Amino acid sequence: MRFSSFCMLGLLASKTQAVLYGDEQFGDLPGRFWAFYSEGIAVIDPESCSIETTITKDHEGKALPTSWNDVVYMQYDNEGTLEGYVMAGSRVDYSNELGEPVSDAYAISSTDRKVVDTVQVGPRGVHTYAVWTQDEFWSHSDGDGHFYVVRLSDLSKHTHKVSAKSEVPAHGKLLWDEDPATLGNRGFATSTGEQFLFELDIATKQQLTKYDYSSDLIPGSGCRGLHAIAYSAINQHLYTECSGGGGVLEFDVSNGAIAFVHQHNNATGALYETPDGSFVVASNKGGDMLHVFSPSGSGSKSSIETEIQVPGHPSTVSFLSNGNAGAGDYIACSPLTENLNQKHRKDGELVCDYYVGCTGATTAEDVEHGICLHDDGGMLLKKVTEALTADDSPACSRCADSANFDDDGACVCTPSCGSCDPAPTYDDSSSGYMCVDLGAAIAGTVTEATLIPNTGGMKQGKPYGGSADCSFGRTYRTHKRGGIYDASVASAPENSIHIINMQTQSKQCEVALPGQPSKVTYAPLQPTKLDAQEGSSMKASSAKRAHLFFMSWMMVTVGSMVFTWATW
């Protein structure tokens, strides 16, 4: 009976999965990967690993943006004709005719494979969402703190601006649910710059409330704001990633309210619900691991089911079903974002990147491996004005040679350290992707993900304003699942798309690109009506829930027959 009850819970949860970006439902259809890079857009066949189509101009013959924000696939029923659109945000901001900072979102026909329209949205529109239950595309502007809403019936303009801030605009994300039986029209938004969780009405496009969680925090734990967000229908809880430290905050949003539950101070990362709704996974890039949360009852804090080692600074995760009925029985894969510059390794270990830092050189060997020597303030590269001997300062031995002094009579001790290396040596032979059998990890038989080598990486991010000279910023690497494959952007060793086979946990291929890729997504070959899209119909959703209830009742009633029936 315990097994039967658990299966019932899993089945019910499987139809109430919180939407991530809104296009995951198309991942199992035959389709193509769309790579967005600095010179255009490439449509790639994952089987032949060939570029089928290249798009370089918009609908007016103008060049496409040189860098891109999030991309999602959407469908629209236009009077009986189903149309597919790849909706992409431009990373290039400009001033409109009113002098306002704005950016553009591009609508690209997935069948004609050409840009059909652009729409003006807010600046720095990093994250975008396919809110298909409303036939709407939502773009979050980091620049002004609003979601810009574009209806698919008119791709030339936005119809609403939904506030996701209190006073200060910042980077943030959106969570909504496609099943009206769970959150209904309730949406939630995060901000990395303010200590509020915002509740939105997806239907009326209004901010309903803002929950101030500042007094709920563990004193001194950090958490300047919230970033990633996930939802579990099992306990009706939100899971939110703190920015600036502080781990994960858990909120109970049942009964139309918001209540703080717990601060998981020792777990953090990008948050995703498993497709069956049984677990929430946090991909901890800095900590090189996946934290797997197991939801408890409403109002009770979740437990950490397991933690999986993923060396190499994992990005977000993709899930592929193992084809079994077990809760959380998926292959989870993540592309790695670690520094591939071999100059920054010592005895095989990274000694210079965003997470370990690149400062504190004391020996000539440190300098050889890219570590910087900064001044006493720790921000500027150390300079000397008098020639030194190597014995005086091994990390500044270059300044023993007067030829290395500039016209102002100063010598920089480590001018080519960290991100200032003029000639990096990239090698992905021991890096690329890592995958793990999540079901095996939950069962306790696996503790570390498996490396798929030679599957690319990223040039490390440039330092932020106010960072130390020649340091690094965070590095991001987007990817998308399509069928049994997962594709990720790569700028090192070369500009390319790397595709892995998640089923076999092996490399499928790499496809070279003529420019640096920003984003990749997946779109079906033809627009296809899915059962999941009936979720926008209350009648259809009720029928599904009735069907699920019947199956669950059958499992509880039959008891010992459950395993045989479920396997069949």
Tally of separate helices: 5
Proportion of beta-strand residues: 35-45%
Estimate the helix proportion, in percent: under 10%
Shape: globular
Q: By helix and strand content, what is the structural category?
A: mainly beta
Mean pLDDT rating: 90
Unreliable runs: 1-16, 534-568
* Cα-atom radius of gyration: 25 Å
The biggest sheet, with number of strands, parallel, antiparallel or mixed sense and barrel status, is: 5 strands, antiparallel
End-to-end CA span: 19 Å
The number of strands is 37
Description:
Among the domains are: 1-24 and 534-568, no CATH class; 359-416, no CATH class. The chain has five helices and 37 strands. Strands 4, 5, 6, 7 and 8 form a five-stranded antiparallel β-sheet that branches. A hairpin with a 5-residue loop joins strand 10 and strand 11. It is globular and about 80 Å long. Keywords: Signal. Residues 1-18 form the signal peptide. InterPro entries: WD40/YVTN_repeat-like_dom_sf (IPR015943).
